[in-house]
# Entry
Amino acid sequence: MAMDAAHAPLLIRRAQRDDVPAIVRLLAADDFGRGREDARSPLPDAYYAAFDAIQHDGCNELVVVEIGGQVAGTLHLTIIPYLTYQGGRRAQIEAVRVDERYRNQQVGRRLLEWAIARARERCCHLVQLTTDKRRRDAHRFYERLGFVASHEGMKLHLTPAPEA
Amino acid sequence: MAMDAAHAPLLIRRAQRDDVPAIVRLLAADDFGRGREDARSPLPDAYYAAFDAIQHDGCNELVVVEIGGQVAGTLHLTIIPYLTYQGGRRAQIEAVRVDERYRNQQVGRRLLEWAIARARERCCHLVQLTTDKRRRDAHRFYERLGFVASHEGMKLHLTPAPEA
# Structure
């Protein structure tokens, strides 16, 4: 069913524990997320353990976009205090997903604008994110919001250490 | 004075409050840091406020490399819990600096190896960092450690909001 977010009230709010299955479905519906998430019911406990860790840490905010009572998008914001930039705080954005039924309706843009406003509110001087180099549409989306791809985003996946 | 770290004992430890001036000197001695830091004595209070915020947050670890009683390098590690990767934790590295007198003596490598080991100890499945695209030597350094430049690192600097 096609939905029209432009004409529905959109609410951005902190995620609650019972939003976790809907958020994981969004993560798993993603091209890159498909192979690494497990959205089957019941969800692996590790998702709830991570949710609890996020909720109990004042530096992390997991949010959802709600449209017509349904979770239509999600974003994770982390506030990090650094000594750099004369003791400046940064806001880092991760795990941005919008339900495909609500694509091209400015839902992502409104979610990012919310995150940027929240970063200001939390006294950050910089908002940062990394995005897979294969996600070319995402780069254009972030560039339109003012982001500059000035850095290499480098990742090292850890394999379990050999038994001692 | 040239120093030879290969023959001096090297200690990696959590930074203390009285290490802040030495850390800020390292940040300010950097080509990109020069214009954005203020290492003059007394240091701006904001550096100490940031240090206190870092020390009181269990997700952040600011460390120094000490050689012969001197601060010879620094690194900031942040542990972030996410729902992605089935509730996986990531370790993020930022603000890596080695005193130029100790360059090319494996001090940076030992600091990064420490951080990767610490990430495992804190149950992270991934270590990540961003590095300015102009720092070509740094890319090679991180690639030798196993990092892959799979992502764009995008930044948005916030200017103060207009007065309401």
